[in-house]
Automatic annotation (TrEMBL):
Biochemical pathway: Amino-acid degradation; L-valine degradation
Source lineage: Bacteria, Pseudomonadati, Pseudomonadota, Gammaproteobacteria, Pseudomonadales
Entry keywords, A to Z: Branched-chain amino acid catabolism, NAD, Oxidoreductase
The keyword Glycoprotein belongs to this UniProt entry's keyword annotation: no
Enzyme Commission number(s): 1.1.1.31
Domain 6-phosphogluconate dehydrogenase NADP-binding: 3-162
Chain coiled-coil ranges: none
Protein name: 3-hydroxyisobutyrate dehydrogenase
Annotated organism of origin: Pseudomonas panipatensis
Length: 294
């Protein structure tokens, strides 16, 4: 059985690591926070003393870190993990980071004959716990086939998006669209209610008409319309506004690199930054409904 080093055991990494343990993989885990490791030891994980210690003798290295700066800091430079990992070790970088950062790590890995994939996920903490994440993978297709059983232990849908960095590009495109759809849904609901409609009735009409979208299907932003949506529990749980703002920032960064015109993505970022200033960073991103007073 493969020995996996899993680094970054936060909201997403810890349940992902737990699913790998359940699938029978041997895990050596590391996080800067000791308690994050302690939670996995009873499930059979071996706690490492450092990231370098975790990757010693590993066949596979998985990272799930907050942002580009953490990923570049861990892998690159003279003290970086890529100088320490044995050639041939499979590196699966699952954090959501800038496509250009992912390409930098790909480049440095290739120089040392270390096969690497950028593989950000969608599905949130619920998907991480249930093992139903979607992986959007960038890199060599033959490397993906080697990694597929590992992804399958943590997720349900595994897409090959394209070459190096393509997984990250797919992720920021999807989340930009998600934000735009959520904002448009919230704005339309507020317009309808202000003009006398019942939000439940309007939601159902739009859901079954040409305005139908994922927010109306499963994630309605108007409180009380959908019992299981974060809007109906004070916008708690779900996908944090701070993470949506981060991903919209990455989309703008990618647009800058490619010279793309993304006016709605830019506006979405501004609206989510406004929500951060209003103290909603930890609330679910459907809290954007509050900007269109309900
Ligand atoms: P988190 O902040 O809960 O966890 C990150 C963990 O990394 C923390 O435990 C932190 O201590 C650890 N860490 C940071 N630097 C480290 C280092 N150098 N060595 C070891 N450990 C280190 O974040 P999260 O919510 O688990 O998200 C992880 C990634 O997944 C992010 O890139 C995020 O954008 C992405 N993501 C999150 C969600 C979500 O719903 N939370 C959904 C999809 C994608």
């Amino acid at each position: 059985m493969k020995q996996i080093a899993f680094i970054g055991l936060g909201h997403m990494g810890a349940p992902m690591a737990a699913n790998l343990l359940k699938a029978g993989y041997l895990l050596r885990v590391f996080d800067l926070v000791q308690s994050a490791m302690d939670g996995l030891v009873p499930l059979g994980a071996n706690a490492a003393r450092s990231a370098h210690d975790a990757v010693d003798g590993a066949d596979v290295v998985i990272t799930m870190l907050p942002a580009s700066v953490h990923v570049e800091g861990l892998y690159l430079g003279d003290e970086g993990l890529l100088k320490h990992i044995a050639p041939g070790t499979l590196v699966l970088e699952c954090s959501t980071i800038a496509p250009n950062s992912a390409r930098k790590v790909h480049h440095a890995a290739a120089e040392r004959n270390i096969p690497m994939l950028d593989a950000p996920v969608s599905g949130g903490t619920g998907g991480a716990i249930a093992g139903t994440l979607t992986f959007m993978v960038g890199g060599d297709a033959t490397v993906l086939e080697k990694a597929r059983p590992i992804f399958s232990a943590m997720g349900r849908n595994i897409f090959h998006a394209g070459g190096d960095g393509a997984g990250q590009v797919a992720k920021v495109c999807n989340n930009q669209l998600l934000a735009i759809l959520m904002i448009g849904t919230a704005e339309s609901l507020a317009l309808g209610v202000a003009n006398g409609l019942d939000p439940v009735v309007l939601s159902e009409i739009m859901r079954r008409s040409s305005g139908g979208n994922w927010a109306l299907e499963v994630y309605n932003p108007w409180p009380g319309v959908m019992e299981n949506a974060p809007a109906s529990r004070g916008y708690n749980g779900g996908f944090m506004t701070s993470l949506m703002a981060k991903d919209l920032g990455l989309a703008q960064e990618a647009a800058q690199v490619s010279g793309s015109s993304t006016p709605l993505g830019g506006l979405a970022l501004s609206l989510y930054r406004l929500l951060l200033k209003q103290g909603y960073g930890e609330k679910d991103f459907s809290v954007v409904q509050k900007l269109f007073d309900h």
